[in-house]
Amino acid sequence: MKKVRLTINGRAQQFVIDPKRILLDLLREDLKLTGAKQSCDRKGQCGACTVIVNGKAVRSCLTKVGELDGAEVITVEGLGTPQNPHLIQEAFVLSGAIQCGFCTPGMIMAAKALLDEKTNPSVDEIKTALRRILCRCTGYKKIIEAVQLAGRFLRKELTPDEVRPDPNGPKIGVNHPRPSAILKACGVAEFSADVKVQGAAELAVVHSPQAHALIKSIHTAVAEKMPGVIGIMTAKDIKGTNRLKVVVADRPVLCDTTVRYIGDPVAAVLAETREQAVAAAQAVEVAYEPLPVIKSPTEGLAKDAIQIHSDQPNLCYSQPQIRGDAEAALAQSAFVVESDFSTQMNHQAPLEPEVCVSYLEEGDEGEEPTLVVIGRSINIHFHLGMLQGALGYENMRYEEAYAGGQFGIKIDITSEGLAAAAALHFRRPVRFIPSLTESMYLSPKRHPFDMKIRLGADRQGKLTALAMDYVVDNGAYLSAGRAMVFRALYMLSGSYYIPAVKALGKLVYTNNPWGSAARGAGPPQANFALESAMDMLAKKIGMDPLEFRLINSLKPGQPKSTGRVVEQWPFPELGEAIRPHYNRAKREAEDFNRKGGPVRRGVGLGTHAFGISMSGDSANVAVELEPDGGLAVFAAAADPGEGNDSMFIQIAAHLMDLPMSKIRLVTRSTDRTTATGPAAGSRMTYMVGGAMVDAIQKLKSAMAEVKATTYDQLKAAGKPTRYMGTKKNQDAAVTIDPTTGLGPSFESEVHSIQMAEVEVNTQTGDVNVVKVTTAVDAGTVINPQNLEGQLEGGVDMGIGYALREEYVAGQTKDWITFRFPTISTACEMENIIRETPRVKGTLGATGVGEMTMVTTAPAVTNAIANACGARVRHLPAIPAKVLAALGKS
Amino acid sequence: MQMRSLAGRDVFFDSEGFLVDPSQWSEEMADQLARESGIGRLEESHWQVIRFIREYYLQNGRAPLHRELKKGSGMPLMEIEGLFPGGIKMGARLLAGLPNPRSCGM
């Protein structure tokens, strides 16, 4: 032990402490400061724990307290509070630089260290100062802008009040700060690991090292006697079905007889400290009898393949789509391209680990206690039902904490089943903070697709037919896998009119990590093949890729691949909007390439019409007029970073003509909210926002009917103060035909055309994305910064998907091996926004959250092909694949 | 998903027999579904539960928790479970026209 004197946030303190204790643990565990975050297993990879020590930004997870005697430490809490924020915190809020907020404290502290030295840094200096801090949401653009704005504040060129929109002014189309942003900027928004639970025991899980095996025995005797161990839980201790059912009840909370992928949870250890739990988990001995491992869909479909689930064939879903005679059309086409493409398994990569807290809350006398789960769900009512069935316990409540990123991963339960089962079994409050590697084990992945495509056109360049077969590696458990297959079919023809279509999607169980939703969920994979083929076909015809796309645009009155005729299709206007930028980029590329040398510049396009609101979708929201004239909005509308809080508050204030401060959102607990479906599928503004509009209209109608303008008048007139609003998809109960794939499609679309400008080093295969320009039409824009934030974050994620990222089971264990995009790899971005009001939109708005991800990868690989002729067909386009495509293996 | 003609209108049911659109529910529909499920004629005790669940759903946008159902209906949970084949979740809620608690819409 050693005595260490520190001044932390201006307060001198002394600690008698293990000198090896790291500063992050001192701050979070001893001082209960929640600003500094932990994501990367204390490897210094994420920077979310950055604080200032003696004027320098340091990663507190790498800093030993014993080396800090006499040091001055400043954390984000030491800068300001929500009531009295620091100028840098205000700049981050006002720039729209805060989405999920998990990286924000680290970003702000690194920015402060920089701005303390230099209040007018260049972009390169900002990038250098912030280079060690990762962000998954923003694409870093608005973070750089926030630092620049903070510099202007500090230089007294501008004040926050001059930037902040008038809260009493217009509500729609204005960058009103997100209500949650200031809490995140000040480090006081509580994520699951920040929740203080008295006496919480810590959970650690035993994961299978085998991809497919029978569990022959689990020996816990040694582990049970280790220090601090409270107990060890196996499948037999779970009293419910022990199955987490999304569509099929195939995924166990804890495996009972069989493990089906590397990382499957087998046992859980509860101990007084996390270190004790982890140590005991390593001492649990599991004997396995290996089974044949299905490594790919091809192996899974083989005649003699072992069946991974006894009650489900390995081919667990297939869906064709047939419209017209595609074979005949292709045979008669003047031009046809044929190729195969594949996309990789990928991790959605939210920064926050898969944390969960669970405890039993005592009820009234004679009542059984309530099992409370605090976690990262974006569909709390559905997940509550899953947990009730799996654990065999009815009296439960789910509370959504602030969540550090989503991107589809939170459509499934991960840590919640284990934490809640342990809280119930051991009757102790439980905290489960899995490591980053464990979080990757526990969570679903983006499905890999293998695709074969044929695309034809006539002599005029008009598309004639599309044939596409794709096989999807489902991994070990089904989850929402079927949706990936049919969502790809619902949007198969993208932006275009294609007269004949013949497609078949197959979903196959394997012993790989299980797949589920990931930003875009199906279309990013299928559209990579379509948009690559579009460029290949344009080249074969000899047409410009932009012209080729525009002459093939679908038009109102024409059908998509499902046969559904569309009413609105504002895609050609986007093409015209991007045309000047496209011409500029082509000129610059030609100028660049004229100089010669191994680095070649290219320009590539990707487009899509991304569907919002699938057939059968519905949402409901309750609103209640409150005695002070304010409005409460009740809906389980999760906001893991997209800005749903802004959307609700700005729309409600606009419609009710109320100050935004009088709109109160109740969204986080199953006890108090409507079950309004997942915060997924880019559906929140269109569906849940639309349901809120309906509820408000009902309230206003009731008030108008009795001429009430206040709560008291409405009550006095005998009218209810609470109203339920709904929004239903026009196809309440219709899905595509199982044999033809024809029928409905999505009710609305967000249109995009994206242009990537890249430089390819033809000697090394390295690709540098110089700039991405996104032209988008998502209808009415509620909050421009939130829209841009989705676009920019999606582009950055799309570039990572295109060039670097891949989840390889057993090898990808942290942010380095995942190749997480950094501020150094972030490119210049420009947005072109058009607003065609959607007929059925929420105040004319549709969704936008996933769309940019869908078009980026093909835009980048098309740009690579344009630069140097290398057609990369298998993502990610790492240098070796670029070189191979150039014939330089 | 299947469409059936029930109580004078065409309605869609999911694979577990739940109404796809809760707003299509009617008391006549509940009566007919009850007969098909083997309950026979719905008694006042059944209606007490069904009406509470239905009204709670329309007001709150979700099914009542068991403790809320117990308090609201004034009946012990075990008695309610026994009244409906499938119990509260898959029986009473089905007859009250609530969405399938096990459906995620995918």
Could you give a short description of this structure?
Helix content of chain A is 30%, strand content 23%. Chain A has 889 residues and is an alpha+beta fold.
SSE topology:
The complex is a heterodimer of chains A (889) and B (106).
Chain A: E1 2-8, E2 11-17, H1 23-30, E3 50-53, E4 56-59, E5 71-74, H2 87-94, H3 104-117, H4 123-129, H5 141-154, H6 160-163, H7 181-185, E6 201-207, E7 213-219, H8 221-224, E8 229-233, E9 243-244, E10 251-252, E11 258-259, E12 265-271, H9 274-283, E13 285-290, H10 297-301, E14 315-323, H11 326-332, E15 335-342, E16 356-361, E17 370-375, H12 380-391, E18 396-400, H13 415-426, E19 430-432, H14 436-442, E20 445-446, E21 449-457, E22 463-475, H15 481-490, E23 500-509, E24 515-516, H16 523-541, H17 545-551, H18 572-594, E25 599-612, E26 618-625, E27 631-634, H19 644-656, E28 663-666, H20 684-705, H21 711-716, E29 722-728, E30 748-761, E31 767-777, H22 784-803, H23 815-818, E32 828-834, H24 851-868, H25 879-885
Helix pairs in contact in A: 2-5, 3-5, 15-16, 16-24, 17-18, 19-20, 22-24
Chain B: E1 2-6, E2 9-13, H1 27-37, H2 44-60, H3 66-73, H4 77-83, H5 87-95
Antiparallel strand pairs in B: 1-2
Helix pairs in contact in B: 4-5
